[in-house]
Design a protein that fits this description.
The protein is 31% helix and 22% strand. It binds adenosine-5'-diphosphate. The site of adenosine-5'-diphosphate (ADP) has 19 residues, from helix 8 and helix 9.
Amino acid sequence: MDIRSAVSANVSGILCVGLVCLDIVNVCDQYPREDEDVRAAEQRWEKGGNAANSLAVLAQLGVSCDFHGTVGSGPETEFVLSDMKSYGVGIELCVCHEGKKLPTTTAVVSRENGSRTIVHYRDLPELTVDDFKTKISLHHYKWIHFEGRNVIEVQKMIDAIDDHNKLRSDANEKIKVSLELEKSRPELLSLFHRADVVFVSKDFARYQNCQTAHDAVQQLGPKLRCKAKLVIAWGEMGAYAVEKNTTSELGKFLHSPAYPPLVIVDTLAAGDTFNAAVIYSLFNGNSLHDALTFGCQLAGIKCGQQGQRGIVNKMKQSGRENQTNAK
Ligand code: ADP
């Protein structure tokens, strides 16, 4: 079944709730000393933030998808939203705070050792459950992905989805919820059992005292709700996953190797690319193992180039296109 026929005319498909920001990347021959005046070898503005990056991939995969989150006003916001739009991402559901700046990440990348030093600025209000209830028509979506942040409000948004799902007896009409836990913040764990698919980063796993993906599966897997899936990307080691069955037992520990490109060019947004590819694959009814493999393949292609544009076409050209032609 083609993804476009999987979503009927008034169903948009996937909504991502989270952060977008402007990344200003300065590439320098080496990292400057304090108070030094240096010229960057290269500078680029890019859309940034997990939601923006994952949506750019979903849109390239042909999914009808929307962004829901807060933005400011001014040139940074205009740049990022028009970049997202150019990928085909729906931006009409963002909440605009006039007079506020879009969060900005200023990065100095050293060519000498590849280090990336980042200064993040944000004064933008977080999204609220009232924004969510005002802007979002839940019956438009089959899948809603949340970034793990702003926990109290996100909990209430998931409550609204649970209420929506309770009124639907047909499993196909229920909205699936996925959640990314990336930052090392203790309160994020309270969201863990609220999602059908939980993505955990290496950083979050380590923060939970898990030194390996296997530790993370053993320690965090039991916290899943029944029939939920845990997915853990682990850089060049690839990715791992486990699923809980209806009787609360954990299934087989699954693994996909990484698919490194010939030359690693840029790993920024590899994780967001991986998450989007896994969501896409599961959304299309593929197995968890196939979804892991697809995620690692597409993330590998991303690592071989700057930015994310064109990665799905590259995958098709490389012959790994089984899943880009949705079942
Ligand atoms: P993040 O970008 O959030 O730090 P990871 O580093 O865990 O995420 O990477 C996500 C996925 O991207 C990995 O599961 C892997 O498939 C791919 N990936 C990341 N770094 C590399 C690499 N150096 N070589 C090959 N694949 C990579």
